[in-house]
Amino acid sequence: MPETVAERLRSKAGADAPKLIRVLSGETIWPPPIWLMRQAGRYLPEYRALRAKAGGFLDLCYTPELATEVTLQPIRRFDLDAAILFSDILVVPHALGQEVRFVEGEGPRLDPLQDRAAFSRLKDAIDLDFLGPVYETVSRVRAELAKSKALIGFCGAPYTVATYMVGGRGGEEQAPARLMAYRDPDGFQDLIDRLVDASAAHLVAQLKAGADAVQIFDSWSGDLPPKEFARWSTDPIARLCGKVRDEVPGAKIIAFARGAGSKLADFAGVVPADGFGLATSEDLYAARSAVYSCRALQGSVDPIALVAGGEALDRAVDGVLQALGRNPLILNLGHGVRQETPPEHVAQLVARVRAE
Ligand code: CP3
Question: Which of 9, 10, 88, 210 has a CB 3.0–4.6 Å from the CB of 26, allowing a cystine?
């Protein structure tokens, strides 16, 4: 029997659990725990130094010693409440046998799956041995991280990962994947279903290796019309959560459907996650009333206010605390840290939240 939301919330985390886990169990904590999407990355000089040593970005992801170090860098520098595994959502297509490369200054490039026939080039199931170094990184980070801090594992949502697999790259409103979804919905459904299974296995392996919680990133579904959003974002993410909890009962899950907007209420009504990420563009008061008040919300300081710093950043932080602070809140950005962000501004954000 799958757990209900109420059953999960009744089994509260202990007082010695990391703050992030207590908030995901429905507790309101003040000041709220803080972590930032893309908190490890090119805005940090210590990341750039290690990245240069590793060679390519994927080499960094698949070398446990270096990936562990990069995961821990922002925790050491800013004393954040959670670390997020250093990896990428595109390791899942890679472990399904698709070619994946990262082109310097341009981003990811995959060998595009142009139609249903191309799916035969994929493996039937995700190759978890291939991703062994990723799970080893999880274990190493968990062993080195203070017990008071949470380690977050992650995957991309099936729709977002499918947009890269079909298009071969990001951009242009993910038109190639959407076109396939309209022209051959059964074929696209087949790809989504493969990704539900592969992503569930990948999240379960991270939880078993020591991740305390996992986040599902749906970066590109927000653009979809409501019916397509329900079919390609909400339904697969709900099934993914169910499969993860079949293997790891009580697994803590954060679902981030970036830009869900007015679709958030239906999404949160169907997806059995413990927390919901909010994009920069969300109306925080509307989001709070759209989601049952015991379920955590995560967000959503504008990453560009973080670049600006100063008073604008303080106001952005205060706005989030004011709108969401009376309920379970995880303070985060509305999207990832940008490369041009001065690291001192992250320290300013942390100080502002903790001074409140
Ligand atoms: O948040 C973290 O610090 C953990 C690691 C992490 C990365 N990517 C590292 C990364 C996470 C959680 C991701 C998720 C991810 N990757 C998403 C979903 C979140 C989002 O941003 O919407 C997506 C869509 C991807 C795919 C991806 N990876 C793109 C489009 C790019 C190129 C853009 C860019 O910033 O270069 C990447 C590369 C990438 N992933 C980098 C990092 C640190 C930069 C790599 C480098 O050092 O050159």
Answer: 9
For residue 156, give the ligand 1 atom closest to its CA: 18
> How far apart are the CA of 266 and the centre of ligand 1, in A?
28
* Residue 94, burial from CB neighbour count under 10 angstroms (0-12, 13-18, 19+): buried
Query: The domain containing residue 158 runs over which residues?
Result: 5-354
Residue 283 tokens read as 């109306």
**For the chain, what is the domain count?**
1
- State the pTM of this model: 0.96
Reported confidence tier of residue 316, pLDDT bands at 50, 70, 90: very high
The sheet carrying 82-84 orders its strands as 82-84, 150-156, 213-218, 253-257, 275-277, 296-301, 329-333
**Nearest-angstrom CA–CA distance, 295 and 30:** 16
User: How many residues would you count in the chain?
Assistant: 356
Q: What is the CATH number of the domain that holds 329?
A: 3.20.20.210
Q: How much of the chain exceeds pLDDT 90, in percent? A: 92
